[in-house]
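Bench log, entry 3. Co-assembly request; chain sequences pasted below exactly as received.
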Amino acid sequence: KQEVTQIPAALSVPEGENLVLNCSFTDSAIYNLQWFRQDPGKGLTSLLLIQSSQREQTSGRLNASLDKSSGRSTLYIAASQPGDSATYLCAVRPRSNFGNEKLTFGTGTRLTIIP
Amino acid sequence: EPEVTQTPSHQVTQMGQEVILRCVPISNHLYFYWYRQILGQKVEFLVSFYNNEISEKSEIFDDQFSVERPDGSNFTLKIRSTKLEDSAMYFCASSYLAGRRGFYNEQFFGPGTRLTVL
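Structure output for the full assembly:
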């Protein structure tokens, strides 16, 4: 059974710093990995999707990497801003004959950017 | 920019009552999903729907749950007899494709419906 873990559970950094969020998964047989942002009491905003054949994806100040063989992904946020404060979730989509449509989510990292 | 919408944003119901949560997926998407998030816990998959039938469901999605696409735009989740433990945020999502094809299988989520069962 796929398990997705995100460490740390919470992170506080001063504004302007670069930071890295971590995601690990136990089964490397995946189609893709998505990073999401969730604001308190709100929905999930898709930030980046990395296909299993890719090593990284970039969108603005965000860069996500994927090392499928070791079961790890990182989300790098450059020049952090107070507006980046949110919970960041990673989710993987399994590669299998059955059950290959659902996303399996991690518990998230709650990020606080200190002005 | 196209987005997934959900109504209502908050639903309060008595235990044992039926509720219907509504979603309007992105218009050219073909795959539809329901997930839920109990307060403080992970987002959990409930069901996926394609071509007017359930394509996959989780253990959570028992006989009390059903989904329907009653017309060309709406996608609904019905809980027949709500329990206290059904209290959660319910998210609808959609994607253009699933399966192995490229970037089109990115899932886009709605803002959620907070269901409170008393």
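The CA atoms of residues 3 and 26 of chain B lie 6 Å apart. Chain B is about 0% helix and 50% strand.
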